[in-house]
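Teaching note: in complex prediction, the entire set of molecules is handled at once rather than each chain in isolation. The prompt given to students was simply: 'Predict the structure of this complex.' The entities are:
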Amino acid sequence: MFQVPNMLFALPEMVLLTMACVILLVVAFTGARKIEWVYGLSQLSLALTLLVVLWSLGDWGLTFSDTYIKDALSDLLKVFICVVNMLVLLYSVNYLKARQLMQGEFFVLAVFSTLGMLIMVSAYHMLTLYLGLELMSLCLYAMVAMQRDSAVATEAAMKYFILGSIASGMLLYGMSIIYGVTGSLAINEIALAIANTDGNETILSFGIVFLVIGIGFKFGAVPFHMWLPDVYHGAPTAMTLFIAAAPKIAAFAMIIRLLAEGLIDLQNHWQDMLVMLAVLSMILGNVVAIAQSNLKRMLAYSTISHVGFLLMGVLSGTEEGFAASLFYTLIYALMTLGAFGMILLLSRQGFEAENIDDFKGLSEREPWFALMMMILMFSMAGIPPLAGFYAKLSVIKAVIDVDLLMVALVAVVTSVIGAYYYLRIIKVMYFDKPVVEHKLEASSSMQIMLSANALMVLGLGIVPGILMKLCTIVFA
Amino acid sequence: MEKLIFYFFAAILLFAATMVITVRNPVRAALFLVLAFFTSAAIWLMLHAEFLAISLVLVYVGAVLVLFLFVVMMLDIDLAPLKEGFTRYLPLGIVVAALIVVEMITVLNAPQFDVVPVESMEESNTKMLGRLLYTVYVYPFEIASVILTVAIVAAITLTLREHKRKLQDVGKQVAVRREDRVRLVNLRREKAKGDETP
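The expected output is the structure of the full assembly:
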């Protein structure tokens, strides 16, 4: 018979949902007058959620008729999602104010989107997973389109929406086929059904094709990457930052739940597909990024290449591989946060510091932030002793352990190619003469947090052991 | 007999779906969509899913499509430029579609997808669905409601423009004092240029 669910497990989601409704009401009744309050409330709600997650750490199990899971993975990812989104909001405030985008709706959508990410992270049922994904994506589409007078932003939002819908359709189709064969949508029951029966692998792999396409779209892996550069470039930078950081963490949870937990017995089927995606992403991302003169576009292509690296750990199908991928995802989120945060820091009213030329001579104007940017770029390029190096090292090690030497080789070669365009930014900052007049307008709290963000990348590179250990424990 | 009815409805459904995307007039396309929904509702009825069938008719045909028709009629979109690429992309589209159809037929022809006879249920369909929705699937059900809220918020964000009209505030008008409106200024007389030469 029906069992009353243990609601306490879902406390973070409930707290965030309640706070989101409070924010919605505050926005509705105060409008633009109390926008600072709304910002404060959003930060408070994320902080409260973070506290609840930390408070309930370690108490694991399934609830809501096995549609909800609370395990080490979900706890760790929730902590990171909350922290990352708090930083995103902090970095965005000045930028939004200068562009009349500081509207209550932005914060409402941001909080609801975070709720969607939390739901995705602890979904243990394809239905919950899909609904969480839709909740997150719907908010993101609307956020990209918020700058209505900008034709580029509208176009980006349109592309994002249409391709995102196609991806959701593909994902649903794959889920329905898998449901048709296994007779269940719950992740653990699917795994059980696959382990107990044999002979219908053809149909299951047919379903997996659609699942992988959907996942590829959401991650932006080649050949499903077409939307990514345009959206990153066209959206207002604050929105780009939001899309680039935390949703990738949530998407990582999705790929782990679907492929690594639900369909682990069919690993030989999805491994080949992921190898294709990973290799193509690394090659195309790194090569095309060289030709970009717009920093946002360059970072978009660099994201594509990072997605390739991230998939490498997953495709190895081992616990070490998953842990390496998790580590990579978290480090990637921190690095992207810093890099886009730097664009936000240097932008001001009527000026977007989004071209690489805008960073010329940064070391003369702002030696401290030039140093921070250098740390971030070196880390993205994967140069020791920064965090990006250990992330790359561990995923490459994961594929070597399962004898996929060719993939490892491609990864190494393309990361050398990739180093070129990251180093170019450093060269521009340190060896070129400044061309734009410049004055920092960002709040001191943002400057401090951005510095802390970059220094954390450095710190995690020097002492990667703690986070790496956490990632390993999650999958052990 | 049942098979015959199924194929009858399936044929109408396929025909209507094709017409939706090929017909020139958007109003007609919307009407064909109504037909497609009706026939799929009929197929659901044959599967003993009465509640879903009725809600498909009520929600989609009754509400969504009527709204859709209104929008189509009011916006008066010129569809000619939208269809320009149609013939250019048609060959490629047909090849891809044919490939997918062949793949699906080869894969889905497997014995797993044999038709299982539907057992008739002793309880009403609606009651069972309702019980499931509010017990086992209560969490997804709640998330769906949040998604609907977000949809409204997003739609309002994207369409509502702040009105910068002049509004009369009668209270302020009545409460106005002389000092607010009239300002007495002591102007020193300036010498105009013409005055210099008397």
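Point out the following to students. The two ends of chain B are 116 Å apart (CA to CA). The helical segments of chain B are 2-22, 26-46, 50-75, 86-108, 125-134, 138-159, 170-175, 178-181.
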